[in-house]
Amino acid sequence: MGSKTFGRRAAIIAWSLLIAGCGAGAGSALIPAAPPRPLVSIPVPLAVVPPPPPPRRSAAPRALQARIEQLIRNFPGKAGAAIVAVDEDWVVQQGGDLSLPQQSVSKTWVAMTVLSQRDAGRLTLDDPVLVTRDDLTLFHQPIAGLVGANGYRTTVGGLLTRALTQSDNTANDRLLTVVGGPAAVRRFIEKHQLGAIKFGPGERLLQSGTAGLTWSQSMALGRGFEAARARLDPAVRRAALQRYIDNPPDGAAPVAIAGALARLARGELLSETSTRILLDTMAASRTGHARLRAATPPGWKVAHKTGTGQDFGARNAGFNDVGLLTAPDGRRYAIAVMIGDTAAPMRLRQQLIQNVCAALTGAQPRATGGDEDGT
């Protein structure tokens, strides 16, 4: 073999070894192997349902604010009023942060608690309820005439209608036992962050405490409560009424109530069906024809709840009307007008509520004085 032939073979062998080295694994000193690429999972975005648009913001009407300020400041007593534009998100108020007695306005929160439990599947409006003589309360309770020795059989919905449209105290307190007592209503208020709204102990304890009495179920029969109250020393009654006015256990700020009603109207508190049930029932209210209703002109709609406290001499602690007003063009306004302590006659109290409402609606108020059926 010649030297040239040997050299060519050596070159071929060396070249072969070089090629083999190029195909080596990660330990090759010449070209390191690339690491394996990890699998990448690309998430598919879920469909996002946008929340309902917030109400459009606009400035509160200055003339309306000035009128509300004037009405409240000129009233001879402790009072407050608030109007919230549901669809425009403005507020006018005067004395709106005062804690004023709600009286039967508080039936609104009982009704909301009932309907929230309906939404949660805990009850239905068709659930049967027995009302017995042990359930009777005091003052305005039309259902009492139906409660015989064996009681009166009705439904949750029947009690709800009576409580809101007739302001029936017994119907309301019986609903309280259905939902779990005052604590359940307070939990609803707290859960939904309704603000400066307190809920009292129920009609019997609230009213007896305001009068300076200790409740006895015998007071529920006939006019037993009124008779027991009349026997009290006037000084005891006066002191008890003052304690109530100074720190009402059912006190609430008008601006908080109007804000809660605005949220109800927007569907933020209850299901659509329950919201409709509540507002339709409040629209059928038979109480307070000389309050908000008297300043609701043709074409406007009102769904409302009144509240009336006890009198002691010329003094009254709690005279209210709150609700939702709907204009002919569909715009909605939550309103709360509350009087906490005054010696003004009923006609002037009615006129204040009407005038606040008329400042919004443009109606010509009409005070009639003695048509206050219910509370």
Automatic annotation (TrEMBL):
Residue ranges the record marks as coiled coil: none
Q: What's the name of the protein?
A: beta-lactamase
Name all Beta-lactamase class A catalytic domain ranges.
83-338
Q: Which SUPFAM superfamilies match?
A: beta-lactamase/transpeptidase-like
| EC category | hydrolase
Q: Which keywords accompany this UniProt record?
A: Hydrolase
Native species: Sphingomonas citri
An annotated Gene Ontology molecular function: hydrolase activity
Q: Identify its protein family.
A: Belongs to the class-A beta-lactamase family.
Asked if the record carries the keyword Hydrolase, the reply is yes
Instruction: Enumerate the catalysed reactions.
Output: a beta-lactam + H2O = a substituted beta-amino acid
Q: Which residues cross the membrane?
A: none
EC number(s): the record gives 3.5.2.6
In terms of InterPro entries, this protein maps to:
Beta-lactam/transpept-like, Beta-lactam_cat, Beta-lactam_class-A
